[in-house]
């Protein structure tokens, strides 16, 4: 799966929008977005094989598995509540 133009545009919009708001977690959110793009792309190329994907990314299999779990947890948070509600 090639990164979609929309995915890259969403990352750029995140950077543009947050740099004007002055929110302190821009780096973390941009890094998470980039991780989702690159890990998803490489996992697709590897046919879902963690070992092959980890080798291509230059990560250990354990680190890749940890990133995938973290991304799943991040997606669950987005589904359960919008960011404004999570901050309360």
Question: Summary?
Answer:
With about 90 residues, the protein is mostly helical. The chain has helices spanning about 5-20, 25-45, 50-55, 60-80, 85.
Order of helix and strand elements from N to C terminus: HHHHH
Count of β-strands: 0
Looking at CATH, the homologous superfamily is Homeodomain-like
**Mind telling me the CATH class?**
Mainly Alpha
What is the CATH architecture annotation? Orthogonal Bundle
Report strand %: under 5%
- Tell me the Rg in angstroms: 14 Å
Calculate the terminal CA-CA distance, rounded to whole Å: 37 Å
Integer tally of domains: 1
CATH topology grouping:
Arc Repressor Mutant, subunit A
Which sheet architecture does the biggest sheet show?
none
Fraction of residues in H or I helices: over 70%
Helix vs. strand class: mainly alpha
Sequence stretches where pLDDT stays below 50 over 5 or more residues:
77-88
- Which word captures the global form? globular
Q: Would you tell me the overall average pLDDT?
A: 77
DSSP helix count?
Answer: 5
Report on this structure.
- By secondary structure, the chain is mainly alpha-helical.
- It has a single domain, classed as Arc Repressor Mutant, subunit A.
- The protein is built from five helices and no strands.
- The chain has helices at residues 5-21, 26-45, 50-57, 61-80, 83-86.
- The longest helix is centred in the middle third of the chain and has 20 residues, at 26-45.
- The model is unreliable at 77-88 (pLDDT under 50).
């Amino acid at each position: 799966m090639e990164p979609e133009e929309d995915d890259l545009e969403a990352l750029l919009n995140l950077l543009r929008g947050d740099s004007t708001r002055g929110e302190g977690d821009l780096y973390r959110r941009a890094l998470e977005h980039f991780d989702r793009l690159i890990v998803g792309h490489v996992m697709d190329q590897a046919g879902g094989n963690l070992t092959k994907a980890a080798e291509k990314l230059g990560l250990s299999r354990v680190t890749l598995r940890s990133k995938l779990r973290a991304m799943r947890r991040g997606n669950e948070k987005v589904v359960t509540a919008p960011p404004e509600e999570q901050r309360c």
